[in-house]
Design brief:
Layout (H helix, E strand, L loop, with lengths): L1 E12 L2 E13 L4 E5 L6 H8 L7 E6 L2 E2 L5 H11 E4 L11 H12 L4 H11 L15 H12 L6 E5 L7 H18 L2 E5 L3 H6 L2 E6 L2 E7 L17
Parallel strand pairs: 3-8, 3-9, 6-7, 7-8
Antiparallel strand pairs: 1-2, 1-4, 4-5, 9-10
Helix pairs in contact: 3-4, 3-5, 4-5, 5-6
């Protein structure tokens, strides 16, 4: 369960203060898909960064599975992100000097996982890249790089997966295959999935849809799981 209680975010701006997020209360149940939408500058990525513990609210509390992460120090936040949160970025952020396999392997080596090598191979297979593990990011298409990034985000089996515009740097067809992959992960793993997106298709298929404008929630829709269109299990369309 993700809970935001009275969360605000403001930053200095000139001689005054710019409010990026106005007081916000939200809850996202475990195992659901939540889509955060809104125009550029509405506060979407800021909200995701607060949930990830990458930024601190000006006021309020962010609570993940009963833990108030706003009370954690940097070491505590690092441990939280390393074990409980996976992050997928719009521009992939793969290490260019490492192969796809090595990019997936790194988080598990840092965590000291015993079965890291076998798990990295399995994760690449699950995202449809079993034969591409020895390739470097420069040798992969955008869709393939994003699949590697998703496998890396899942490396330590986090219960929460956050994605910031995961299809924003991809063409329509490839973006669709990434959507199916992410929704399939939610279905098979029951991973809580929170996405920032401009994609109306994805928002329509989410269990929870949150629309922001000027740092305020202007729409908060929830629907029962049986109302959400089913996603194929770990779709493997190439992209």
């Amino acid at each position: 369960m993700i809970e935001l209680r009275g969360v605000t975010k403001s930053v200095p701006s000139g001689t005054g203060t710019l409010t990026i997020l106005h007081p916000l209360d939200l809850s996202i149940p475990h195992g659901t898909v939540a889509a955060i939408t809104g125009p550029s500058g509405s506060g979407k990525s800021t909200l995701l960064g607060l949930v990830a513990g990458l930024d601190s609210p000006t006021a309020g509390h962010v609570i993940i599975d009963g833990v108030d992460i706003t009370s954690l120090d940097e070491d505590g936040l690092a441990r939280l992100r390393g074990t409980r949160i996976g992050f997928v970025f719009q521009f992939f952020h793969l290490l260019p000097s490492l192969t796809a396999y090595e990019n997936v392997l790194v988080p598990m080596e840092i965590a000291g996982a015993r079965d890291a090598a076998a798990r990295a191979t399995t994760l690449l297979s699950e995202v449809g890249l079993a034969e591409r593990g020895h390739h470097y990011p420069s040798q992969l298409s955008g869709g393939e790089q994003q699949r590697v990034a998703i496998a890396r985000a899942l490396a330590n089996a986090p219960p929460l997966l956050l994605a910031d515009e995961p299809t924003g740097n991809l063409d329509t067809s490839t973006g669709h295959s990434i959507i199916e992959l992410l929704l399939g992960i939610n279905r098979t793993r029951r991973t809580t999935l929170v996405l920032v997106t401009h994609d109306p298709e994805l928002a329509a298929r989410a269990d929870v849809a949150i629309a922001l404008r000027d740092g305020r929630v202007v729409e908060h829709r929830e629907q029962r799981p049986d109302q959400v269109a089913s996603a194929p299990v770990l779709a493997r369309a190439e992209g």
